[in-house]
Amino acid sequence: MLAKFSLRELLAGGIFVLAGAYFALEALNYEVGTAFRMGPGFMPLFLGAVLAALGIGVAASGWQKPDKEKPLPPSWRGIALIIGVVIFFGATIRGLGFVPVVFIGSFGSAMASRLNSPLFAALLAAGLTVLCTAIFVIGLGMTVPWFGPWLGQ
Amino acid sequence: MDIIGYLGLGFSVALDPINIFYCFIGVLLGTLVGVLPGIGPTATIAMLLPITFSLSPAAALIMLAGIYYGAQYGGSTTAILINLPGESSSAVTAIDGYQMAKKGRAGHALATAALGSFFAGTIGTLLLAFFAPPLARAALNFGAPEYFALIVLGLLVSIALAHGSILKALAMIVLGLLLGMVGQDIYTGTPRFTLGIRELYSGLNFVSVAVGIFGVAEILRNLENEKGRDVMVKSVKGLWLGKEEFKRIIAPVIRGTALGSILGILPGGGHILASFASYSAEKRLSKHPEEFGHGAIEGVAGPESANNAAAQTSFIPLMTLGIPAHPVMALMVGAFILQGITPGPNVINDQPALFWGIIASMWIGNLLLVLLNLPLIGLWVKMLSIPYRALFPAIVLFACIGCYSINQNIFDVFAIGFFGILGYVLIRLGCEPAPLLLGFVLGPLLEEHLRRAMIISRGDPMVFLERPISATLLGLALLAVIIAVLPSIRKKRKEVFVEED
């Protein structure tokens, strides 16, 4: 039975149903109000229900249309490194300061590509660090320390 | 003052050396991101938005506008030279443009694209100058029901432009609307969907959402399938068009401009639709339809003019009503707000120098673009040999730095990661991100106007149908959905988007 569904549509529909259900259920905690004086919960409750219904529709539209072609496998290395760099940036920008964070961040994201060698990534990171520091810190006067308190500065 | 006087005022602003400089930077950056596949104007403008904070309002908006229409020019260069649309709207240009390049007529194709775009840009700007003031005057009479209806129209028209499933596009809009509701309720101050996180009280940061789903998600997508690109044309010659070619492109350019100007005004944004529509119109009108797909110069002239005209006229709903027609315009709203200006019908009266300055700068920008794109074409060809693997790390870093610098808020940076993943998963599942962003921007406006309208009408929903303007707008919105689901149109849409692949 499941084999007759398109996995893509099923997953997409599932995400919409889950998101819709979350918003609608959470909205019940707020005052819903009346059509005349709508409370903060009115619109999210309504839209959440609509989203869940659309999600069911999306999932159902995949009935009897199993996926024909297999999608390319995701680049797990890319996802881990890119998202890792974003989180690293947020977590350390205050502590480590601009220069080290940008250097490590550029190196990490450059390594997300299988085609980049560590040497190329390091060169690219050095170049980007100079460029970003020149544009954002020197040029635009962004208020961020070059080297942060964690490095004893 | 009459229109000449206003345009004079505009040019006095736009010709200020500082503003010319930022206009130049804007179109230069726009051409660059347009030329480079994998980086679009949406992500670029989102990343640069924080930087504009330190500029004067006129300089900031002139530069951001320049990036947008500059990208339309740059995108065609990539389409013609390597058969990859640098920009989604130049996908059609690739069909015949690349064939022309293969036959050694790359110069002609590029010149056609640039001249067509310049003509269309000029006309589009003039239309903006003529139609914006009366529309803004009319919009001053708009009440909450009219605004509500207009936003609904904008959201629903955007479905017609999404690839693939209409249900998915609708769901993405609704998801965007819901995400837009995160934060404190405007009337009661109740925090909604904040998960107890204090940073979410003021809502999700718009730049984080835009950069995440347009920048990071796109990078993750590109990393799936890495390959070098091949620049076939190493040097471009023969940029001058002959008399024969001029004759062949005049009519398509004019038709493309007309089509693009009309479709561009539609809320929901029509520059992609405009180029597709112009291509099929030229193919149908041509005496030699068999040439299309094998290097017909008309197939370059029409769509290129159409997408550029649409790029200019899509500023009309933004400048007169404050309603963004598509994600890039939504970012422009963000830019206005960062400068402390609420975009809408009041801008033209309260800030005439800014309003007319932006319009005048568009004409100057278009002129700069012709100069940038034709004599300097060799530079852009070289740019194309920069591999993507050297570019995307810069995008990741710029995104983080830009987002962080707005509020010095690390939560905004984490949000990029979250929306990057969400965007990537949804794109993989065949859902277009553009409607989500549009919903996200318009969500708070939609809710505010709906609630206000219901208070005015004492809870009677008939108010939307009793007022002629809102009834008409809602009727058009319904029509847009009906047209989008009609079987014949669906088939056509499929054909159009297959050609793109």
Provide the β-strand percentage band of chain B.
Answer: under 5%
Fraction of residues in β-strands of chain A: under 5%
Q: Termini distance of chain B?
A: 50 Å
Mean pLDDT of chain B: 83
- Count of helical stretches of chain B: 23
Arithmetic mean of pLDDT of chain A: 87
The tally of helices of chain A reads 5
Helical residue percent band of chain B: over 70%
Task: Give the oligomeric state of the chains in this entry, treating copies of one chain as homo and distinct chains as hetero.
Answer: heterodimer
Strand-and-helix sequence of chain B, N→C?
Answer: HHHHHHHHEEHHHHHHHHHHHHHHH
What is the helix content of chain A?
55-70%
Q: Going across the biggest sheet of chain B, name each strand in turn.
A: 1-2
Euclidean distance between termini CA atoms of chain A: 63 Å
Radius of gyration of chain A: 24 Å
- One letter per element, helices H and strands E, the order of chain A comes to HHHHH
Question: Could you name the ranges of chain B where pLDDT drops below 50 across 5 or more consecutive residues?
Answer: 497-501
Label the overall shape of chain B. Answer: globular
Describe this protein's structure.
The complex is a heterodimer of chains A (about 150) and B (about 500). Chain A is flat. Chain A has helices spanning about 5-25, 40-60, 75-95, 100-110, 120-140. Chain A has about 150 residues and is mainly α. The longest helix of chain A has 22 residues, at about 120-140. In chain A, about 65% of the residues lie in helices and about 0% in strands. Chain B is mainly alpha-helical and about 500 residues long. Chain B contains 23 helices and 2 strands. Chain B has helices spanning about 5-15, 15-35, 40-50, 55-80, 90-100, 105-140, 145-160, 165-180, 205-225, 245-265, 270-285, 300-315, 315-320, 325-340, 345-350, 350-375, 375-385, 390-405, 410-430, 435-455, 465, 470-485, 485-500; strands at about 185, 190. Chain B has a two-stranded antiparallel ribbon. The chains are: A mainly alpha (about 150), B mainly alpha (about 500). At the A-B interface, helix 1, helix 2, helix 3, helix 4 and helix 5 of A face helix 8, helix 9, helix 18, helix 19 and helix 20 of B.
